[in-house]
Amino acid sequence: MKLERRRVSIKSPSSFRADSLPNMNPYLR
Length: 29
Description:
The relative contact order is 0.20. The chain has three helices and no strands. By secondary structure, it is an all-alpha fold. Helix 1 runs antiparallel to helix 2. The chain is about 75% helix and about 0% strand.
C-alpha cells in the first residue's frame, strides 16, 4: 500500500502533497 502511494507521488508532484493529508488519501485511490 505504501509503495503504491509513493508511486503516485513520483507520477505527480501534487500527489505527494495529498499523500500527507489522510483526507486526500481516498481521493488518490
